[in-house]
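Quick note —
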Amino acid sequence: MATLPATGLKEWAEFFKSQAAAEPGVENMAVAGFIASICGQVFSAAGAAAARAILVAAFQVSLLLATYVATLGGDDGGSECFALWVAAMVAASPIVWEHYLVLLIIPVIALAAAAAAGRASRRAKLAMLAACVLVFAVPPMRPILPQNAAAAILAEYGVAVLVLVYLSAWWLVRDRPAPS
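Predicted structure written out below.
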């Protein structure tokens, strides 16, 4: 919404239309691409484009709103809020290449620092552990998987990693003990 006055309504609306156009694939691990894939399988060709646009926009707005609410008024001395925003920006992006996952080292480091200080919840640590297992287990298996199965697994593995890292960072921010 903050960009609306600077860009104008037409350009702003075009940007959000382009967000829904992301296609799934081995290269694109975006949640928007995953939503596009599901819409293509569930809805007719005519309804898929509209459903995709609505669902992608709803996901992105919900993700940003949840992130805003989680970090609202938070004391970010340990940079947990920043880590959550980094995870949210990668998850909300319409295109996520595999090398974008490097940005997720920020939430990993924030969680490690919080865990060392005793501020990380069990579920935040478990979600991050699951994401790290996926990141390090799936890519080395690519050469031995049949191409069709590899494509399907890899498209969903990226989405799972993004969701798990976001949840871990969200729980890290939301589950921290209140200052006393």
